[in-house]
């Protein structure tokens, strides 16, 4: 279900990009766009702009609806289990606390061994 909505969401995003790029710029930037000159034809530029505008609004509303739907589905999936439960297959509270061995480095202990430990700090001189 979530994959189908995600595919529809991606198709809507591509359609929305395409329909916005098809519209004529009315900002007048670089002297492009603007008025259509004299003479009124059967199909004027304003009617096409409103049809594209309505299609843009329809795609935008559908895009927002699929976004909200995907958010709700993701929130429902995440509340049922945690990441550690999904990775290990068991609840995190039942996981035993791991104690690192003294012989294996833990990765977080970056200090050299202490003087009262088993290993000497400097190697013994060869006789």
Report what the structure shows.
With 127 residues, the chain is mainly alpha-helical. Helix content is 50%, strand content 0%. The protein has three helices and no strands. It has helices at residues 2-22, 45-80, 83-88. The chain is elongated, with a radius of gyration of 32 Å. It starts with a helix and ends in a 39-residue tail after the last helix.
List the helices and strands and how they pair.
Layout: H1 2-22, H2 45-80, H3 83-88
Share in β-strands? under 5%
Total DSSP E strands: 0
Instruction: Summarize the helix and strand pattern as letters.
Output: HHH
Please state the CA-atom Rg, rounded to the nearest Å: 32 Å
Shape: elongated
Helix content: 40-55%
Low-pLDDT stretches are: none
The count of helical stretches stands at 3
N-to-C CA distance: 75 Å
Mean pLDDT: 74
């Amino acid at each position: 279900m979530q994959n189908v909505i995600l595919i529809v969401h991606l198709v809507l995003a591509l359609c929305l990009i395409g329909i916005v790029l098809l519209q004529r710029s009315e900002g007048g930037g670089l002297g492009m766009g603007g008025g259509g000159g004299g003479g009124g034809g059967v199909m004027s530029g304003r009617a096409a702009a409103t049809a594209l505008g309505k299609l843009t609004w329809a795609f935008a509303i559908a895009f927002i609806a699929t976004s909200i739907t995907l958010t709700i589905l993701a929130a429902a999936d995440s509340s049922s289990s945690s990441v550690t439960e999904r990775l290990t297959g068991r609840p995190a509270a039942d996981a035993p606390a791991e104690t690192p061995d003294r012989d294996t480095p833990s990765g977080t202990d970056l200090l050299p061994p202490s003087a009262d430990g088993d290993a000497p700090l400097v190697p013994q001189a060869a006789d």
